[in-house]
Amino acid sequence: MRKSNELKTLYSQIYGSSQQAQSDYSDLLALMAQAKALRKPELSQMDKHQVNWVFSQDMVGMTLYIDLFSGDLKHLIDKVEYFKDLGITYIHLMPLLKPRDGENDGGYAVEDYRQIDPRLGTLDDFVEVLDTYRHHGIKICIDYVVNHVAKEHEWAKAALNHDTQKQDYFIMYDTDEIPNLYNRSVPEVLPDKCPGNFTYYPEIKKYVFTSFSDFQWDLNFKNPKVFNGMVDNLLYLANLGVNMIRLDAIPFMWKELHTSCRNLEPIHDLLRMFNLIKEEVCPSLAILGEAIVQPEEIIKYFGSEEKTECEVMYNANLMVDIYHAFASRDVRLLTIDTNRFRIPSKGTWMNYVRCHDDIGWGFNEDAIRSFGMDPYAHKQFLIRFYDNEFEGSFSRGEPYQYNPVNHDARTNGTLASLLGLQQATETKESYKRLEALRRINLAHALILSYRGMPLIYSGDEIATINDQSYLNDPAKKAEGRWVHRPIFDWKRAERSKQAGTSEYEVYQSLKQMISIRKSLPLLDGQANQKALDMNSHQVYCLIRSHENESFFALYNFSEFNQKINVEELRRWVRGTHYTDLIQGRQFNLEHKILELSPYEVVWCKKD
Ligand code: GLC
Asked: Is the domain of 118 the same as that of 102?
C-alpha cells in the first residue's frame, strides 16, 4: 500500500469517516505540508543522506539533565569537547521543554511544547545548541511527553475553565462510577504519588484520568484533534533540528474500560501514523520509544518488517538481566533473553545499564522457573541484594515504591553504587574496589557490544556514587530517584585524567572500548547477534556476525577465574585465531579450554 494511502486508512480506522473526521484528516495533511515547507536546507540534506544513522556503530550516547550537567543551555555549548574526548556521538537531553512550576516529575509535566524551560535558557539558545552539536557530528535526542500534559498546559487550562471542547482532549467523568470501574482493572503506576488513576477537580466537578500524578493529565487520543495537535508539536521540534524524539510512556496512550489500559492495540496504529508522518516530513528524525513493560510487549513497538513504528526501543530487560547476572553469578537468563526475540531489521535497541529512573525487577519468569527457582522469591532476592540487605551483597542501592503488603519494590542508585564501588570505598578494601571497577567495566562493555545504540548515564563514566543531598530539598525529598540524579561533579571529572583513581579506571576503559566499537562495522545495530550457552553459568558469550566476519565477546560475571570449553564457540565463528581487542590477548580456538580472570571481558576479532 502506498504510504499516503496507509496513513489515510489508519486515520479513518481510528477516527471514522464522518465529515468531521475527514476535515480533521485534511488539517493533518495541511500541517504536515506546512512543516515540510519550513524544513531548513541543512535538515533537508540530512533527510536525503542520513536516514539510517541510528544503526551505525559510531553511535554512542549519553543521557543527562542540562541543569545538573552544565547549569543551562548556553554552558552546554562549551561542553562539546567533553563529549568528543570520550567519543560520545549522541546526547539525550532530559526534559527541557517548559514544565509547570513546582513539582513537575523531573520535567515530565510539560506546560508548553514550544518553549524552553526558562531556567535552562531560551529557544534561541536551544537552536544554538542544536546547530553547534550538529556541526560536530553529535546528534541530539529530546523527550516528547506524549501521553500527558501538565495541568497548566493551555488545553488543560481551558478544560479547567469549562471549555467543553477542550475537556474532550482529556478523559474525565462527572461521577466516580466509571473511574471506579477503571480502577478495578488498571494497576497504579506510582501508588505513593497517585493512588487510584483519577484526580477529582472540584472547580469543574470532574474526575480526570491522571496515570502518573494529579498534575499530569492523560491525553485522549480517541480525539483526532489531540492526535493532530501532538503531531504538530512533534514536527515543530523536529524542525528546530532535533535528531531523535523519545516518545515517553507510550504503553499508556490508549484507554479502554475493563482492560489494564496498557499496550492496547490502537497505540500501534498511532505510532505507525507517527512513523509515516515523520517519513514524509523529516525522515532523518528517529523515533525512540519508551515502554518499560514486559519484553513481549516492548518488541511489538518496533512494528513489523514492513510497518515500522519506533526504530529504537529501550532495552529495559537487558538492564535487569545484567543486574540479575551480577547478583546471582548466573548468565543463563541473559543468554536466553538475548536469543528470545527477533526484532525487525529496521529496528534496534537502546541499551543501557542505568538511567534517571529506578530499576523495576520485571524478568522472564518462565526462564527463572526452568532453572528450578521461584520467581517471587527470586525477585525478593534481587530487591534485597541491591538494597544491601543481603549477606555478601556489594550493592548500596535503595528501595523505591516499597509495597508493605507483598514486599514488592524497585531499586534506585547509580551504577557505581549498585556495582560495589561505594561499599569498597567505605570499607577501604582494595580488592573489592578492583572487583567493583571490573564489574562497571563489564557492564559498559556489554552495552557497547550488544545489538543497538549504547547509552551511558551521565556521571557513570566517572564512577559517580549515590548522593543523599536531595533529602534537603523540599521539592525533591519525597522522590527517591534523585539519589542517582546528582549535580555533575566536575572535580570528579578532573580525576578521570589522574592515573590510579577510580574515575580514571572507569573513564579510560570506557573511552578505549568506545573507540574499539567504532572501528568494528560488525557491531552495527542491524548486524545479527546470538548468545551461546558456554556450559558455564558464569560466562556470557555474545557473537556478532556480518557477512564474512565474526566477532565474539566473553564476559565473566563472577569474582573467580573461569575455565570454559570453546568447542561450541568454534562451531559458530569463522576461523580459529582471534585477538582480544581490549587487552591484546591471543586466542587459538583449537585449544579446547580458555581461562578468564574475575569479571574479565574479552572482545575478539578474527586475525
Ligand atoms: C517516563 C520517564 C519517567 C516519568 C514518566 C512519566 O517513564 O522516564 O521519569 O516519570 O515517564 O512521564
From this structure: yes
